[in-house]
Amino acid sequence: MRLSRIPHAELLGAPLPDPHTTDTDLAQHLGLTRFTDAGFPWFTPVGQRLVTHIRQVVRREMERAGYAELRGPAVHRVETLAPAGWLERFGGELINFGPPFEQYTLAATSEEPLLSYLGPGGLVSHRQLPMRLFEFREIFRFRDRAEGIYNSRQFQCCLFASLDTDHDAYLRSAEHAQRTVRAVLDRLGLRAELVRDEATGGFEFIFPYARGDRPRSRTIPYHRDATRPTTATDDIPQGGVAMGYGYTHTPAFDVRFRDADNQVRVPVMGTYGIGVQRCVVALLEQHRVPGGIALPASVRPFDVVVTPQGRGPGQARAAERIYDTLVDAGAGAVLDDRHGASMGCRMRFADAMGVPWRVVVGRDEAQSGTVRLRGARGADEPERTLTADGLLDHLARRGHEEWTGAAALHDEEFGAIA
Fold first, then answer.
1. C-beta separation of 47 from 33 below 8 A
2. Of 29-38, 189-198, 296-305, which gets the smallest average pLDDT?
3. What is the CATH number of the domain that holds 250?
4. Among candidates 395, 397, 399, which has minimal Cα distance to 387?
5. Contact at 8 Å (CB) between 348 and 291?
6. Is 224 inside any structural domain?
7. Does the pLDDT at position 213 exceed 70?
8. Can you say how many angstroms the Cα of residue 112 is from the centroid of all Cα atoms in its chain?
9. In three state form, how does the secondary structure of 102-120 look?
10. Are 321 and 371 in contact (CB under 8 A)?
11. pLDDT tens, 282-320?
12. Distance of alpha carbon 397 from its chain centroid, rounded?
């Protein structure tokens, strides 16, 4: 990414106005998000890299846990939501189309659309169970008091589901989903409290947030009725960064399978979700440092920033060559070549985004074919003068140490998921 060629780049690296600014304001000040209309966020090129890395972590853990990815439409028929009472439950939150498409609505949930996709014919034998599926989805709900990316009207989720032969098998799948979510949160470097109900398999991961959720009593079976047919008066569990609960669908979707005795039966479905945007908020909340954020290696937008020092064309060309070399090698590099930006502004951007390495190309380096490599502010890293090959070797070695250390800690603490 070349910062000189993205919109609003002049705002990157501006001093933070208040160390206690809210996460929503922090996200906008860091250049991660912008709002042109309340409740509908834009993720900037920098912010989208963070979201992409979160999704990559989630996808990797989902596939590792045996879930198969699919992708559904963002528009559903209104009648699909009617059998389970979602029309009454959502009320005015559904975003419907006008004539002649009034029978359609923007996606507000996933269970019924998934069931309409599965049956009849999508599930035929007990040998297909347990079936585990996941998808990344944009959810749309018209909320009166939309606020930032934590409580927006359009938000990103990873929604996943399990189908099992009976309730006991569903409880095993719910436990499996819980371990999968825990593995995702660990890879993301997030701390979250687990609240669960042993009887129903329902669970929720809640992270401390100034305006968000508070830890709940572990003794309250708040998902007690989650495995019965839904009604219009049911309360919808809200909040947290991830959750899971049982779901008994209505016969209208005609999802059936034949058991070992060749009897036709209805599978037990469990549905779960991880809020991608809420993971962004949690990362900002838990990894704030003076002047910005210091994100884990698994999700930070950039690993190295390359910047020319001075306005000479030789420095600019040399910095571009180093940047291209890093990108070709697979490094998460960004070229800070903004016109008119001072070195102080460029270093503040690197500090604010938690970029661990800075590559500076001055006039002497441009002439000698070398670079100066610096660590992050406060890091115990001496400045080094390196060739391009030496730079790649050093970054590869240090990156390998960081990644393997984090992976070893994860595997030691949580073990295998499957």
1. yes
2. 189-198
3. 3.30.930.10
4. 395
5. yes
6. no
7. no
8. 23
9. CCEEECCCCHHHHHHHHCC
10. no
11. 999 899 988 899 999 999 999 999 999 998 999 999 999
12. 27
Cα dihedral angle (324, 326, 329, 330), rounded to 10 degrees? -100
User: How many CA atoms lie less than 13 Å away from 228 in the CB half-sphere?
Assistant: 6
* The token pair that represents 355 in the structure block: 């970029």
DSSP labels, 176-219: HHHHHHHHHHHHHT---EEEE-TTT--EEEE---TTS-----TT
Q: Which of 325, 314, 320 is nearest to 362 (CA)?
A: 314
Task: Looking at 329-387, list the stretches that DSSP marks H as alpha helix, in order from N- to C-terminal side.
Answer: 343-352, 363-368
Q: What is this structure's pTM?
A: 0.86
| Shared-domain flag, residues 190 and 106 | yes
Distance in angstroms (rounded) separating the CA atoms of residues 180 and 62: 7
CA dist 151 and 417 (Å) reads 31
Judgement on whether residues 171 and 313 belong to the same structural domain of the protein: no
Residue 213 burial (CB count, 10 A): 19
Which amino acid is located at 192 in the chain? Answer: A
Q: Give the domain range for residue 355.
A: 304-406
